[in-house]
Design brief:
- The structure is a single chain.
- With about 280 residues, the chain is mainly alpha-helical.
- The chain is about 65% helix and about 0% strand.
- The protein has 14 helices and no strands.
- The radius of gyration is 18 Å and the shape is globular.
């Protein structure tokens, strides 16, 4: 699989990064979502649980030794913006942030540093996360960052990686949620994209990918399907992913407002049955 890019028209520094990325993306370490997530490793489990201080020594050691997953994880730990819940067009979204279990000092400069190191070591999601970090810091999205994000996500999208696909469409879509502020045409396109993403997220969720379960919760929320959103956030939370628990509480407010408690109970049962059957 070849992606044509014109490096000669890009700044030298960006061209160098892209060459490094495409060289390292060919390594076996990022051929599957299991290689990317490493969700069964001790430090990732601690990170998912919000036990940052317990995870920090091992993550720092691995990150300093050039482990791209550890570098990416360390960047997300330092990145305050990754801890805020995005409700898209909704206001007064409560609770609106995820707090680590223990005291942890966020740092914009350290988050950027470790995202960049993860990019140089070929982590397929790192450029996207750095771009999101810049935007969530209330800065305009630099075109070079957006281009790098797209180019590094594309190989994983073409390989069928559902989380990468979610990130790609969120980055490139005019609208990525059903909202009253956008036109019927835009909402229809958003619906089509989200339904396609959900289809491949479901496959990874059935394989046991916790992040796929979490992103299913987000995708269904953007479709305004609160019962299914809550059910998938519940599944991820029960598997140790603490941020999903915070999203659960957020979605619950909408479920209560819409009087959808019984539908939600049914969806939780369906999801549990699906995952137990494999």
């Amino acid at each position: 699989m070849k992606i044509k890019i014109r490096l000669s028209t890009m700044p030298y520094r960006l061209s160098t990064i892209l060459l490094l990325v495409f060289y390292t993306l060919g390594f076996k370490s990022f051929e599957t979502w299991q290689d990317i997530d490493k969700q069964d490793s001790t430090y990732i489990k601690l990170f998912y649980e919000g036990k940052y201080q317990k995870a920090l020594p091992q993550i720092k050691r691995l990150a300093k030794n050039g482990d791209a997953v550890a570098q990416y994880t360390l960047a997300k730990m330092y990145d305050r913006g990754r801890h805020w819940i995005s409700c898209r067009a909704y206001r007064n979204c409560y609770p609106n942030n995820f707090k680590p279990e223990d005291d942890f000092d966020f740092s914009k400069s350290k988050a950027k540093l470790w995202y960049k190191k993860a990019i140089s070591n070929g982590h397929p999601y790192a450029a996207y996360m750095l771009t999101e970090h810049i935007v969530k810091d209330r800065n305009p999205m630099p075109e070079k960052n957006k281009k790098l994000s797209i180019e590094t996500l594309l190989p994983r999208v073409k390989a069928g990686d559902a989380v990468a696909t979610y990130m790609y469409y969120e980055l490139t879509s005019y609208t990525f949620a059903i909202t009253p502020q956008t036109s019927d045409t835009s909402n229809q396109k958003a619906r089509e994209n989200l339904e396609m993403i959900i289809e491949i997220l479901l496959k990874e969720a059935q394989q046991g990918r916790v992040l796929a379960m979490h992103y299913l919760g987000k995708a269904y929320f953007h479709l305004l399907d609160y019962p299914k959103s809550f059910a998938w956030f519940t599944a991820a939370s029960q598997r140790g992913f603490s941020p999903s628990g915070v999203h659960q509480l957020m979605v619950l407010k909408f479920i209560e407002k819409e009087d959808q408690e019984s539908e939600t109970a049914k969806e939780i049962y369906k999801v549990r049955t699906m995952l137990e059957s494999g």
